[in-house]
Design brief:
38 strands, 11 helices, elongated, about 35% strand
Length: about 550
Amino acid sequence: MKQKRKIFSILLAGFLVLPSVLCTGKAEADNAVYVNDGGSVLSGGLSSAYAVGGNGSVSAAGGTYVITGDGIQQIGQPSAPTTGVPEDGDDGTTVKVKVSTARVGLYYYYSDKRNTALSFANLENKVGSGYQLGYYDSARCFHSVASTGVTTLTMTPDLNTALPAGTVGAYHIKLPTAYTDFISVQKAAAKCPGGFPAYINGTYYVMSGNYQSANAAAAAKAASGLSGDVFTGSARSVLVTKTGTTTILFEFDCGTSANLAVHPVSSSKAVTWFKNLTYYGDFEYFRCASDKLTVINIVNIEDYVKGVVTVEMSSSWPVEALKAQALCARSYFATNVNTYAAYGFDVTADTYSQAYRGTGSASLNSDAAVDATAGEYVTYGGAVCSTLFFSSDGGGTENSENIFTSPLPYLRGVCDTYEAAVPDSMNRYKSWEYDLTGAQLAVKLKNYGYCGGDVTSVQPCYSNTNNVIKLVLTDANGASATLTKLSCSSALGLPSVHYTVTQSAGTFVFKGGGWGHNVGMSQFGAYAMAQFYNLNYRQIIRFYYTGVNISDGVMA
């Protein structure tokens, strides 16, 4: 084993760069110096050297270094930021939260312009052995009313629905006998040709067959000699079939009082396939304002956060950055519970809320980050914060009222000197330039009430963090348009509000950096703080959110 010993005098001319050349501070090392592979002179360059910390830790140098008053620093690594290092430490505070489960709209009806609802929806056990069928009450508790050992299910509205295996008809023969439990109705259905159990407004019935018209159902009833009525479900009725067939396994119809919920059964933690993604938790189906199905994932809040973090950040990013993202995702959800209650869920799985893709992109690293911060929320004044976040800021975040509407005390703009440490190759929007002619600007402004000619003047107004928060564009005759808040970037198709404007030969040059709305946490800034400055998630959160606490959530 090579002996590693401290060298207290700098003898490595040609290898070490003196600290007085590249950094400030004391010339002598206080806590760490170089050691070599056994001799007083390195024989293999700095790649054969070791760095010894003040605590005795040893690591390979592997690069060119300087000795500073703070120890050894690799040349080319970011220097300390000009802003103060954010506060660390645990606040020891608590905050009341409303729910411990999330209702996430995966496919849904919201309006004619936002309608992703499905004609049918498949489920398949990945880890599991069948399902319980039932409903959730207003307290988000699941009630089972049926079960099946079939591992591949297809849910359809009780309409004539075309499936790959054929059409499932919306008309059935409803037998008159009512049952009070699932086992009894299941046994009775098994004795009936084409029979299946149904749960209608709290009572079980046997249904027979599926037909595409009332006349066809009536003719089948007469031919079979079955007693009962021709039946079709309400506007909220949902059928459960075996995937790949037109065989109905169960019908659920409780009108507007309850929706069909499907709970995967497993001896370990269930994982379910849906639309080529895997999910924890349960699923709920109902017909909202259209004939198609809204599909909701009902999942524990921590599992929900695990599905958000790795869509918003790479799961390979530093764990402290992932922890910060976990706090943001959890806090954002807590402030948006029931936002879409009229449509059956809390938040969407897309960027109208925050992106969520189930378990698919999670890793041990990202799951560990969520687990390490489980139950923690960003708070201000005893309430959970609306923790907005975005990709990158270009050098400065912004006050909430300068981009959106409400001034929030914790969403204050900060000059961000950390984000610059991210390599250009990693952040494609670290710097950008858009060249637009006056004619092009005039076209872009038409949607903002501008009726002038080619733009000849662009006058920006900057905030204290060097973001454009007002933009006045004028033509040669004095016609003008004034952009404010987020429209300072969105109206012109610019990636962020962090830019400068110059004019060159009839062209306006918009030169800046960043991607997003610039309010709250910069994700690339969080990466830099963790990766290059060794700061933890509490420090990241306190840098981007002014005056906040990190609190443990307790149920209200």
